[in-house]
Amino acid sequence: MVSARLPRNGAIALEKLTTEYATVCPELGGYPDPPRPREFRTKRVKEARDEAKKEIADYKAQKEEEFKKFEAEHSKGNEAAEQEANKEAEKQIEVIKEAGKKSQATVVKNLLEAVFEVKPAAA
Predict the structure, then answer these.
(1) Residue 117 DSSP code
(2) Which Gene3D superfamilies does this UniProt record tie to the protein (predicted)?
(3) Contacts of 100 by beta carbon, 8 Å cutoff, 6+ apart
(4) Which long-range contacts (CB under 8 A, 24 or more apart) does 102-105 make?
(5) pTM
(6) CA-CA distance, 19 to 100, in Å (whole number)?
(7) Which residues contact 33 (CB under 8 A, 6 or more apart)?
(8) How many CB atoms sit inside 10 A of residue 60's CB?
């Protein structure tokens, strides 16, 4: 039966003939591959998931870059405000230290007096 399928000139090797006709010729043991929709769907779902992951990673990288750019632009203004606030705080600390130095002697005197001089209070 295989011989019925051979071309008339007989020059084609049986090997080549087998590979050419194996997918469509039942006599040579080949049948057309039936479509496999489940495998196709599974493969497509995996491809879609991988594609979505890639898109998400690209979007995340883009947003992080935008955020870093935004942060770099706006942090310069914050740094200036921070330095100004630090200068203001240093001035206030100096004022407090000066006030402490001026009244330090009287505060210590009053504190020692209160501790060492016992004044009984009526209960």
Answers:
(1) S
(2) 1.20.5.2950
(3) none
(4) none
(5) 0.37
(6) 102
(7) 23
(8) 10
In this predicted structure, what is the pLDDT of residue 54? 96
Query: Is the distance from CB of 27 to CB of 1 less than 8 angstroms?
Result: yes
**pLDDT value of position 14:** 52
SS3 label, residue 52: helix
CB 92 within 8 A of CB 98: no
| Positions in the chain whose pLDDT score sits under 70 | 1-35, 77, 123
Structure tokens at 86: 């630090």
CA distances from 117 to 110, 112, 122 (A): 10, 8, 16
**Residue 28 has what pLDDT?**
53
**CA separation for the pair 94, 99 (Å, rounded):** 9
| Domain map (residue ranges) of the chain | 35-116
